[in-house]
Amino acid sequence: MSNSTAPVHESAALLYANTDFSQLNWLELQWAAWYLWIDNPIIATGLMSFLLHEIVYFGRCIPWIIIDAIPYFRKWKLQPGKIPTPGEQWECTKQVLFSHFTIELPAIWLFHPMAEFFGMSTWQVPFPSWKEIAPQVALFFVFEDMFHFFAHRALHWGPLYKHIHKIHHKYSAPFGLAAEYAHPAEVFILGTGTLAGPILYCALSGNLHIVTMYCWIVLRLFQAIDAHSGYDFPWSLQHILPFWSGAEHHDFHHMAFVNNFSTSFRWCDRLFGTDDKYRVYRERITAARKAGMTAEEFKAMEARLCAEAEKEGVEAEKVAESYRYNKTKVA
Q1: Which residues, by range, are in coiled-coil regions (predicted)?
Q2: What is the tens place of the pLDDT at every residue in 33-82?
């Protein structure tokens, strides 16, 4: 006869029964303490995953909100005439929070069972070394970038754009908070690229710790938010790693609607020729900088080039939204 009082999950104390805590570092001790405190691996992993996402996402957005409020930084704004208002940022925040709490929060409780199904370590300590984590995260970056490129291009196709992706293109001059301003279906589609890399790697290798995935998620959130920031500083990563996309690359996509479909790297757009208009635009900006213009003249020139690119983008968006578009120009 079965014991009706038996727990439906292994207690954390049982999970750590053979663990030598004296051999763990401070972070590993806190990790084990969390699972011991919650005493349910499924809840502990789900709650930690959700809190990590919220803290990192909004924590990274705060500096950009502050920067948007300080006129000094306008000299590095990619579309200097379009500063998000507090009202726009609040409306964006409400939509993002709604998505987080109605879609991601319910779904995240499935993460621990799924992780363990594919053999991912969750509560286990000690952690893998940085020498093991770094190449895995690098691989996830490459996988996600390629997945995102093709999925993003698909989302610019008529019906998918009109009914799904159009929400994300509400802001032609994006800002940090808008990184996850999207339709629930888009969150699922593009989010698949973020999760599928680690899951496939784990399924094939049988060797992945969730702490590696958390490192990847944190860096991916930083990448997405910074790419939507709307600022190109001299110290921005794309000036150190020329193949990195960054805000300067992605801002053009929101402004002109076309080109630059990848996330982290420029490789796919260059390989498939989906950066042609972007490169022409940057060449004109560079030529204007070298033309010996005054600050006022350059500002006027930059505004004109932005307006031209955005006007072409409006026409391209009309084309994408048209189900029966043919060679006849859309009015």
Answers
A1: none
A2: 999 999 999 999 999 999 999 999 999 999 999 999 999 999 999 998 89
- Residue 180 contacts residue 187 (beta carbons within 8 Å): yes
Structure token pair of residue 71: 């006129």
Helix, strand, coil fractions of the chain, as percent rounded to 5: 70, 0, 30
Q: What single-letter DSSP state applies at residue 126?
A: S
Amino acid at 325: Y
Closest residue by Cα to residue 58 from 217, 180, 232, 141: 180
Q: Tokens representing 88?
A: 């726009």
Residue 298's SS3 state is helix
Cα distances (Å, whole numbers) of residue 108 to 44, 113, 179, 252, 278 = 11, 10, 19, 33, 37
Cβ-proximal residues to 255 (8 Å cutoff; 6+ apart), any chain: 78, 79, 172, 173, 306, 309, 310, 313
Tell me what pLDDT residue 327 has: 46
Question: By C-alpha distance, which of 63, 55, 92, 68 is closest to 181?
Answer: 92
Other beta carbons within 10 angstroms of residue 134's beta carbon come to: 12
Q: What is the per-residue pLDDT for 289? A: 81
Report the first-to-last Cα separation within the chain, whole angstroms. Answer: 76
- The tokens for 69 are 């409020």
Closest CA to 45 of 210, 177, 175: 210
Helix axes 41-68, 210-227, angle to 10 degrees: 20
Burial class, 209, CB count within 10 angstroms (exposed 0-12 / middle 13-18 / buried 19+): buried
Half-sphere exposure of 91 (CA within 13 A, CB side): 8
| pLDDT less than 70: residues of the chain | 1-10, 323-331
